[in-house]
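Reply to dn_fold:

You asked what the input looked like. This is it:
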Amino acid sequence: MRAGNFSLTDPANAALCATSTGNDFCQPLTGGYAPDGTKLSGTQVPTQYLDPGALALLKLFPAANTNPASNSSGYNYYLQPNNIHNGYLYRGRVDYNISDKDKFFVSYQYGSDSETTVAHMYYNPANAVAYPGGPIVSPVSSHVLSGSYIHVFNAVTTNELRIADGWLENPYRADNLKAMEATTLGYQYGTVYNGGSLLVPSINSPGARTLPDISQPDVFGSGNSFITNKKAPSVADDLTIVYKTHTFKMGGFWSHSGNEQGTYGFTNGSLSYASGAKTDAITGTTIGTVNPLANFLMGITSGFTQNSVNPVDNMRYTTGAGYFLDNWKTTSHLTLNLGLRVEHIGRWQDLSGNGLAVWEPQRYAADVAAGKALPGVYWHATDGTLANSGSPVQSVFLSPRLGLAYDVRGNGRTVVRGGWAAYRWNDQYNDYAGPLQTALGVKTYNSANNQAITLSQISGLGANASSLGSLPSSVYATDPSDDKVGVTYAYNLTISQQIPHSMLLEVAYVGNNSQNILMGGQSNGSGVGGTNFVNQNKIPVGGLFKPDPVTGAPAPADPEIVPNLADYFPYYKGYGTNAISVDTHSGYANYNGAQVSLIRQRGRATFNLNYTYSKALGIVGSTLDAFNVAGNYGVLNIDRPHVINTSYAFDLGTPIHSNLLAGGVINGWTLTGTTTWQAGGNMEANTSQNLGLTIENTALGHTIGSSTFYGTPFNSVLPITTCNPTAGLKVYQHVNLDCFTAPQIGQVGDRQAGGYLSLPSYFDSDLGIYKSFHIKENQALEIRGSAFNFLNHPLPGYSTTDLVTLKLQTDNNSTFSSQVSNANRGITDAKYTQRTLLLAIKYNF
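and this is what came back:
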């Protein structure tokens, strides 16, 4: 295949393609097009179309080392990485009692840790191989200095002052970047911003059985280091006063949270690849095949993005708060907890004084007419009326809290507890790094959406100095009218009842409702609502079904292939097809759960048994509906409808009395254990919200998507359900993919298609035993043995999400069939976890 031969008569290719599910390197070239538009057929890429730049990048791909017939997933490469993770911690503390009423302590802690990662500095992407420029090493040095001063005024009044400061340095480095340099590999092409990096572009894998993922960007710069420095000083004071049946607490809190960090951007450029023919963004010719690896070898990419520079950002935000709390025992039966928190939660500020970029669309047209770079985008340094933070924030928030405990009979055997409170929280640093980088002059080039561009064309853009100045850039900006911060309203109600045999039965309802979640932000770790929702420069629904808004040319016959695609974007004059990403606080989420627990905490045998039935809903992490927030609401990936937890401890007692030596060895041991079972999470939420739906139009020779169905490339096409996908399943099968098909043109598919599709459940049972041997006063030896997953119960799972990916084909965009047989798909093919034994010996003195 490295030479462009994809014939299945080749034994090696046939073995590799035995588990093919379509849209991969097992597909013929028939129906596809070469880079010059020549129609292709057969299974061999003609030699003249093998791109020299692609062949240079091919050197990064490791050679096969595994027989694909030896594993159920059909992999031909296997690597067992060695992850070195060493660290140590030092901590010292001094306590001093000045008097009976004055006490203070001061402590200092230093930690050092170093971790080696294989494929990527933050995570290992799917289908990744070891980073050729690595290993990537992440040393961490952390410092925490803290102190406390307590003054007792009298028997009912106490004050505590706490001061702390924490700081951390966490640079990343790659130890063999020379292996990724263009000169090392013989990669002769340039990029759009040729001065940005010496490394070849990163490569994003389009999926299983295509090409490996080498997506680590060049963030290391000339110093071969990615900087991360964090600092968080804080001061807090709490005053406690007891008056009759009241316990009053009041105090204040102040903190700075600062982060100095390099930009995570592709100064070397990033290449994407896909299955299917697309319009060449430069020539307008149709190029590409359904075989992604063939496209790679011909130098045909589905997208290219690049940052001009990666500056170091330095931001911080300030929090200040005061609170008052009254714990009031109103009667012998009822206790109330009444509180109010008054707080200011500041926005992230640029410490250089430049400010974060904002988007002001009302100024766009005039800016375009004036020839301004980045029309409609301003920041504090260019417009002093704008806040340094870009978005403003309300000066003060009021966060009330209410709790109660009611002893029904007055004897403590039946107690009702409940509460309601508001908690506010800030967005994370990454949510505002983009707007700061825009203001710092970072240019980001993105090739046209849903169009192809070749390696040589990318090089040509950078080589042409006159076109470089006019290349549009995507931008990140804040909303100058958005003054909201995230808030969570939490509530709970618990009934506790003591029952015979020293047991406690509890029934509870707990929940929370979060508002003002930052759309596009990373409060969920990935990007709430996805990138398309926050993009202001997107083609409206039905746009591609209409004539060209610039030239008046008729609507495109094929909405997936539009030579003049940029004309359909509302801000094309200033940004072409590039994104104008503006995050706003309009997301929401909620959790509700019913809990039952049975607890015994006295006697030789103690245990805790609990069950939770719950639902976690909110805005998901990918864009389903780019124009309406509610269209992106659904089951979250943290949802686990049913959870059972048990923990127990049993004192084995003293069975030996007559023999001192035997009793010392056998008596006094404690047996402990935990067992957990969780229902599987939602399949769509944890794999793909539309089951990874791809639709190949065999008549057109390319895939179709949102542009065909909705006249805009920014929505997702959701499947519709035709039967019960959880009925009549095989062993270890979790979904019948034959129960789904594509919607009709203009039809919105099913949200959470097929109802609740579950992934495999989770089960774990751990066992431990321990005993302390007292040697003499203040000295003891503890021996503890633990068996994690002591039953050696395997956890079934999927080695790749391709096994639950919906792949359809059509020749008329109205009737659909599966590209591959689904008879054995949806079945878990991997097993994870194993029994782990641990023996620990601790000497206390």
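The radius of gyration is 31 Å.
Hope that clears it up.
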